[in-house]
Specification:
Layout lengths: L10 H52 L14 H4 L7 H6 L11 H5 L17 E3 L2 E4 L4 E6 L40 E5 L3 E7 L5 E4 L18 E3 L14 H6 L8 E6 L4 E5 L4 H8 L12
Parallel strand pairs: 3-7
Antiparallel strand pairs: 1-2, 3-4, 4-8, 5-6, 8-9
């Protein structure tokens, strides 16, 4: 008779051990995912902080913020900002006498710049878009309006000269123009990139949630949202099924839970909840409507 039976687990003990491991995994996994998302949000905040500093430096050197979209060369505010984001060489490589679909301009648009990409985005790094084969998506938009969230159909349209935000076509906004206060005027905010048809605009054209940086081969009409957003549209508009496509495109939005991050004209960065009062949110997008909002902490 064997007086020393072999050590081992019974079936019940094995099942208990598996159950314990499963419970621990269920407890720890959300915490790990939350920590990873927090790290991504911090990096996104740092991107906006750099953009805010770049805007301040541009204003210090040139006495104004960069134009939202310049005409007729179709350069974005992000292209004008390149020298102030340690991208002087890339900026100097541009040839505005050529099309954006041709080198060296297409090459610049195909250059990956992490400062314009939120780590939480699910977008590919390179996409064949509008004749630029390896175009790089952008996750940040300049604020063009606090009252207009339409970029198609009859005038007035977001991004045009009558816009009341910092950035619009051929804008030359100065700090002194921000009558609502630089700490109450939104400069740049997040935007999700979803490269699929999400609806048809007032011109009956299929539209995507596509945002880009540096420049574009398209005109500003019905495509201002390639570079510009509006606080007249709700935060995270892409989640609202029955929201019109123009508002979805111009909406500041993110894949961070519950809202999106923005940087104001004075350089401070905040996370804005998608439940923010719509009138307050609208007021933050205008530069001179006399609707001063107390600085968000």
């Amino acid at each position: 008779m064997n007086k020393h039976p072999k050590a081992g687990f019974t079936l019940v003990e094995l099942l208990v051990a598996i159950a314990v491991v499963g419970i621990l995994s269920a407890i720890l996994l959300p915490a790990v995912q939350s920590a990873r998302e927090e790290a991504r949000r911090v990096q996104c905040k740092n991107n906006l902080h750099q953009i805010g500093i770049g805007l301040q430096q541009h204003h210090d050197v040139r006495g104004k913020f960069p134009a939202g979209i310049t005409s007729p060369d179709q350069m974005f505010w992000s292209g004008k900002l390149l020298p102030y984001l340690e991208q002087q060489e890339l900026f100097e490589s541009l040839d505005l006498s050529r099309e954006w679909t041709e080198p060296p301009n297409s090459t610049a648009c195909e250059t990956y710049l992490s400062v314009f990409r939120c780590p939480s985005t699910g977008a590919s790094r390179h996409i064949n878009g509008q004749g630029i084969e390896q175009r790089v998506p952008c996750n940040y938009l300049g604020c063009t309006s606090g009252s207009n969230a339409r970029e198609s159909g009859p005038q007035p349209l977001a991004g045009h000269e009558e816009s009341n935000g910092i950035f619009y076509r051929n804008s030359q906004t100065e700090l002194r123009d921000l009558l609502d206060g630089s700490s109450s005027t939104l400069a740049v905010g997040e935007a999700v990139f979803i490269f699929k048809i999400i609806g048809r605009d007032h011109f009956d054209k299929n539209q995507f949630l596509d945002h880009w940086y540096i420049g574009t081969p398209d005109g500003i009409d019905n495509e201002a949202s390639e570079a510009l957003g509006s606080t007249a549209a709700p935060i995270n508009g892409y989640k609202i099924i029955d929201l019109f496509v123009d508002e979805k495109e111009l909406s500041f939005s993110s894949h961070h839970p519950g809202g999106a991050q923005v940087v104001f004209a004075d350089g401070h960065v905040v996370f804005v909840s998608e439940t923010i009062d719509r009138k307050t949110w609208s007021a933050l997008g205008s530069r001179d409507r006399g609707d001063h909002v107390v600085r968000t902490p």
